[in-house]
Amino acid sequence: MRIEEEYKKTGYFWLPGQEEKKIPGVLSIDDGGKIELEVVGNFSESIASANDNDDISRIIGFVEKDGILTLDDCFYTIRNGLFGGISKSKVRANRAFIGAAWNKEETVTFNSLSFSVDCLDEWVGISGIHVANDWDNDTATISYNPPEKISFSLDNGMKLEICFAYTLPGFPNITEAKITQRAYLRLTSVELRELNEFTAIAFKITNLMCFAMDEVVSLKSMSATSSQIQRTVQEKQHPIPISIYYQSIPFHEKKPKKTWHEMLFNFGSIKTNAQQVVNNWLNAYDYLYPALNLYFSTKTGAQKYLEGKFLALAQGLETYHRRTSNETLMELALFDSLVEEIITGCPENHAEWLRGRLTHGNEINLSKRLKRITDPFKKHLGTSAERSKMLRKIVDTRNYLTHYSEELKDNSAKGRDLWVLCQKMEVIFSLHFLKVIGFTAEKIDVVVENCYPLKQKLDAI
Are residues 395 and 450 in the same domain? Predict the structure, then answer.
């Protein structure tokens, strides 16, 4: 999670049901979402106690400016008592809810979750700001019409909305009149749902944005509302927004800058069928999660070395084909019959070993799997000879980096050749993911033609 402004607040903290036992402390939330609380002493029955059985899984606090809050899933990282001087303890929390307090055993539930991601405004590409310049008379007119929110129904019963927050000029505005607008996403549910249900969808949508922008973007500015937490304003009930912090993934310390023409696709490319695209992506996690996870591990920096990145991509492509195809070498009944025939002729003391060796004997090999998944996009991947050479090199390199067999060493890719293979494999993933979310062959051709980063990967030699 990206924290764009330093969060460091002084306040008092206590365990649920023990408000009379407040202790002073400082709450800090770093960029990335790491939550740390430093308190004087500790949360024991006696401030000088060192009872290791203290349950501090949930902590309530009241801090400057923000008021009441809840820290959830907490544990000590440094635990000290108070023996004649000032001693401090440190606590880590996995989640922070700013704006409300929950009891020890109370489930945290919400009806909506709002969040943004890096470069979302550029991806959405919708603005209500209009500027008219009259150069002849040295005048300019600036107007603002808030864009209408865009709503999609999700297959899990939630709604996803693209919303627009804005600020208008204040008074007096003698030297400056400023209008700002930012896009954000909101998940809504009629019934109350636990936070994990919302954040699971937010994680998948953030990864969709990473894929669409061809960039690691981080979730930010998260808040939630609940029908059970409201306040009265002018005799009307209004939900209280609860700010939420945690260490979400993906996260990259450097904030990206991305313009629409550097992206794989933007909202304008899918606006006519955006609801289906989003649902296709979310549903793909049910059967493609391992392949998606391997692909994104190469984008977020989890693979520190080029060899590791290559192996993750190779395994990811193999996994993708396994999850999308039931192809085998022969029909199952024929294979089972053949296995039994072979086992029958095997010495009894070796039968179990042989059966184990034959367990996966009906699966097609990596070379055939790669050919199957490149065939739909072969016109983008060079001539027949170039494709065959690329696939052979991927197989030989995967086998060498997996087994380090000396006979494969000379045939494996190294250095720049290995980097080029990774570029090509990323392209194959991208083209298939476009197909998964509903892009037609014609629309994929348009993406290949107009996406400069994709063309760079295709042209890498």
Answer: yes
